[in-house]
């Protein structure tokens, strides 16, 4: 296609400017569609930010339904350490560690070299090292677990045997250690306690069996179960990490308790600082959400004082992307109603956020926190504060449970794989934006075709005018010659 700049040469007319003006005029046909598409994209973006803010608010909200009020401080002890989950409860337990669980470890006698072949030549070029361990099942019965390692005639050195055992990836690790007397193969159970006790034998090679048979090897450490007394009851476990004695508590045994000393006291006390921190996070996340929703729903009247009589007032560009959106209005109403409600027992001193030092601005919805008043409420009656957030069953709902249900309604639930209202709304907006793009592309093709028709017409005009000008020149020349 000829370029626009080539137009007008033959006719002397500024058809290049004329065509550019026509094209600019035609492009205005896109304005309604691009404006709608921009609006749809802005709404999708705004909903995305609000959805993220709701999810951020949901984190401390969920914590206020349980974890914040069940966070415990755990005492420091000498013979063990302890960790507590939300299932644990504040209490004191006496603990005495009588014996630590140890892993079974055995070694061969020392050899002069780790690369000397210790087996004999066999007709089948093969022998099998069998390592057996006894593992206790959930029903209390014992089960024999066997690992078999096949070796060729040239694979019977200590180094090769260790490499072959480790390659199996079983519950036994092997290493070659250099001592003052030479090299020895050490087999270590990866499992502590009686469950990890090993027996070793070699079939198909009597010479190697004399080296590796567990009867010929020396015990480095015995397979011993842990033994401890908790609150007067004795327990035996194969591991030093024990989580099935006290609900929600894992005991990690580190040393045997000193003989003749009283039992150590495991003390778990409520960590009220976790309540305060979570409430602070809740207020911060809530205010962030209110800031976003306020900006998204903002309405700014159009200033018509500066427009002329032939101009039309339009929507103010400073308006929020979701101004007038009924879904957003409904969500804000539900959220603000929940935080302004009364919860917990009717006779409780703490049944509303205001009782904890949280004031809510009626106009903006923003919260302000009086930390001193919150500290006093937590110190005075943490159980009532907890009830306000967690409720007392279905008949007495809590603030956190109520708000969490609202948030889930809008952002969905990944556990149940359900979509929220926001995702449904943004899906519709995205589809509308894609539809607008199709309309924009279609209209652009029509504009390009229209401009091309004008270009061809101007080109034809150039050609015709050029011919006419040439004929005029020839006629003038003829007339001049006749004169």
Structural write-up:
By secondary structure, this protein is α+β, with helices and mostly antiparallel strands. It has three domains: 1-71 and 271-299 and 318-483, f41 fragment of flagellin, N-terminal domain (Up-down Bundle); 72-99 and 227-270, no CATH class; 103-224, 2-Layer Sandwich (Alpha-Beta Plaits). Helix content is 41%, strand content 21%. The chain is built from eleven helices and 17 strands. It has helices at 15-27, 31-63, 67-70, 158-167, 206-212, 272-296, 326-339, 371-380, 382-390, 399-411, 421-482; strands at 72-74, 80-84, 91-99, 103-107, 127-136, 142-151, 172-179, 182-192, 198-203, 218-221, 226-230, 233-237, 241-242, 249-253, 264-270, 358-360, 367-369. The strands form five sheets. Strands 1-15-3-11-12 form a five-stranded antiparallel beta sheet, with no helix packed on it. A four-stranded antiparallel beta sheet has the order 7-8-4-10. A three-stranded antiparallel beta sheet has the order 2-14-13, with no helix packed on it. β7 and β8 form a beta hairpin. The longest helix has 62 residues, at 421-482. Mean pLDDT is 89; it is low at 1-5.
Which band does the percent of strand residues land in?
A: 15-25%
What is the helix tally? 11
Instruction: Write the CATH fold name of the largest domain.
Output: f41 fragment of flagellin, N-terminal domain
Largest sheet: 5 strands, antiparallel
CATH architecture of the largest domain: Up-down Bundle
Task: State the strand order across the main sheet.
Answer: 1-15-3-11-12
Give the tally of structural domains. 3
Structural class: alpha+beta
Q: What is the global morphology?
A: flat
Number of strands: 17
Rg from Cα: 42 Å
> How do the helices and strands follow one another from N- to C-terminus?
HHHEEEEEEHEEEHEEEEEEHHEEHHHH
Q: What is the CATH class designation of the largest domain? A: Mainly Alpha
Helicity range: 40-55%
Gap between N and C termini = 46 Å
Uncertain regions spanning at least 5 consecutive residues: 1-5
Mean pLDDT across residues: 89
Family: Belongs to the FliD family.
GO biological process, one term: cell adhesion
GO cellular component, one term: bacterial-type flagellum filament cap
Subunit structure: Homopentamer.
């Amino acid at each position: 296609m000829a370029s626009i700049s080539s137009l007008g040469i033959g006719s002397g007319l500024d058809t290049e400017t004329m065509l550019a003006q026509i094209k600019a005029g035609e492009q205005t046909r896109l304005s309604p569609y691009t404006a709608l598409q921009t609006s749809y994209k802005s709404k999708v973006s705004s909903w995305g930010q609000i959805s993220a803010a709701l999810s951020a608010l949901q984190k401390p909200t969920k914590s206020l339904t349980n974890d914040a009020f069940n966070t415990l401080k755990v005492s420091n002890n000498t013979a063990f350490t302890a960790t507590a989950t939300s299932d644990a409860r504040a209490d004191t337990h006496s603990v005495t560690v009588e014996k630590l669980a140890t892993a079974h470890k055995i070694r061969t006698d020392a050899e002069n070299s780790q690369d000397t072949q210790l087996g004999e030549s066999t007709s089948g070029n093969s022998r099998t090292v069998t390592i057996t361990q006894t593992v206790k099942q959930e029903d209390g019965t014992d089960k024999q677990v066997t690992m078999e390692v096949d070796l060729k005639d040239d694979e019977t050195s200590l180094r090769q045997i260790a490499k072959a055992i480790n390659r199996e990836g079983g519950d036994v690790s092997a290493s070659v250690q250099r001592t003052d007397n030479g090299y020895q193969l050490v087999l270590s159970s990866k499992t502590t306690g009686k469950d990890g006790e090993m027996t070793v034998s070699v079939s198909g090679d009597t010479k190697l069996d004399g080296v590796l048979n567990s009867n010929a090897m020396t015990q480095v450490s015995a397979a011993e179960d842990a033994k401890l007394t908790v609150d007067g009851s004795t327990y035996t476990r194969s591991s030093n990490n024990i989580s099935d004695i006290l609900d929600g508590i894992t005991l990690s045994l580190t040393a045997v308790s000193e003989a003749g000393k009283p039992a150590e006291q495991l003390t778990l006390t409520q960590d009220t600082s976790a309540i305060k921190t979570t409430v602070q996070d809740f207020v911060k996340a809530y205010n962030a959400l209110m800031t976003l929703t306020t900006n998204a729903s903002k309405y700014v009247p159009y200033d018509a004082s500066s427009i002329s009589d032939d101009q039309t007032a339009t929507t103010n560009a400073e308006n929020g992307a979701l101004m007038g959106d009924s879904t957003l209005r409904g969500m804000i109403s539900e959220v603000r109603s929940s935080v302004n409600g009364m919860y917990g027992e009717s006779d409780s001193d703490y049944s509303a956020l205001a009782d904890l030092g949280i004031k809510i601005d009626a106009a903006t919805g923003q919260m302000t926190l009086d930390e001193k008043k919150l500290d006093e409420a937590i110190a005075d009656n943490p159980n009532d504060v907890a009830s306000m957030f967690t409720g007392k069953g279905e008949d007495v709902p809590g603030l956190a449970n109520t708000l969490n249900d609202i948030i889930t309604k809008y952002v969905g639930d990944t556990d149940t794989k359900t979509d929220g209202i926001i995702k449904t709304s943004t899906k519709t907006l995205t589809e509308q934006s894609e539809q607008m793009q199709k309309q924009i592309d279609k209209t652009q093709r029509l504009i390009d075709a229209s401009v091309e028709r004008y270009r061809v017409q101007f080109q034809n005009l150039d050609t015709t005018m050029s011919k006419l000008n040439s004929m005029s020149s020839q006629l003038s020349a003829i007339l001049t010659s006749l004169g």
